[in-house]
């Protein structure tokens, strides 16, 4: 048997940090039809008709509306995909992302 003793580290700090979330933001414009905005919100963000309508009207009135929060990668993918769906139809509709304040 060896005399060597192994001293455990005094402090083992548990890793509890969660990945930071990013907001997906819907931006108003003067050209995209309301109904199309609702359709995109329903399809890309799995919202009910009622939720989608409320989010669309908030962006319409205030200029922007937070749609949802996700881990960074997910937020960016969804924002890009929703914006591209609008481009394919020739609309200037824009979704952006930004980190959520903690
Ligand atoms: N302002 C648009 C209209 O009156 C509708 C709209 C709402 C467009 C929200 C974009 O993010 C938006 N047709």
Short description:
Helices cover 42% and strands 21% of the residues.
Q: Which SSEs are present, and which pair or pack?
A:
Layout: E1 21-27, H1 34-45, H2 49-62, E2 64-71, H3 72-88, E3 94-99
Antiparallel strand pairs: 1-2, 1-3
Helix pairs in contact: 1-2, 1-3
Bound molecules: L-tyrosinamide.
Tell me what the structure shows.
By secondary structure, the chain is α+β, with helices and mostly antiparallel strands. The chain has a domain at about 30-100: Ribosomal Protein L30, Chain: A. Helices cover about 40% and strands about 20% of the residues. It has 3 helices and 3 strands. The protein has helices spanning about 35-45, 50-60, 70-90; strands spanning about 20-25, 65-70, 95-100. A 3-stranded antiparallel β-sheet has the order 2-1-3. Helix 1 (about 35-45) crosses helix 2 (about 50-60). It is elongated. The N and C termini lie far apart (about 50 Å). The mean pLDDT is about 90. Bound molecules: L-tyrosinamide. L-tyrosinamide binds near residues 28, 37 and 60. L-tyrosinamide (TYC) binds near residues 33 and 93.
The gyration radius over C-alpha positions equals: 22 Å
Strand content is 15-25%
Which CATH first-tier class of the domain at 30-99 would you pick?
Answer: Alpha Beta
Distance between the termini: 52 Å
Helicity range: 40-55%
Rough outline: elongated
Question: How confident overall, as mean pLDDT?
Answer: 91
Main sheet: which strands, in order across? 2-1-3
Which spans of ≥5 residues are poorly predicted at pLDDT below 50?
Answer: none
Name the CATH homologous superfamily of the domain at 30-99. Ribosomal protein L7/L12, C-terminal domain/Adaptor protein ClpS
Structural class: alpha+beta
CATH architecture of the domain at 30-99: 2-Layer Sandwich
The H/E string reads EHHEHE
CATH topology of the domain at 30-99: Ribosomal Protein L30, Chain: A
């Amino acid at each position: 048997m060896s005399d060597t003793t192994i001293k455990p580290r005094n402090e083992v700090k548990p890793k509890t940090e969660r990945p930071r979330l990013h907001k997906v933001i819907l931006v108003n414009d003067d050209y995209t039809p309301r109904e199309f905005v609702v359709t995109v919100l329903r399809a890309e963000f799995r919202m009910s008709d009622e939720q989608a309508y409320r989010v669309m009207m908030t962006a319409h009135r205030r200029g922007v509306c937070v749609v949802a929060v996700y881990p960074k990668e997910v937020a960016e993918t969804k924002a890009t995909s929703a914006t591209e769906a609008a481009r394919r139809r020739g609309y200037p509709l824009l979704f952006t992302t930004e980190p959520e304040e903690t």
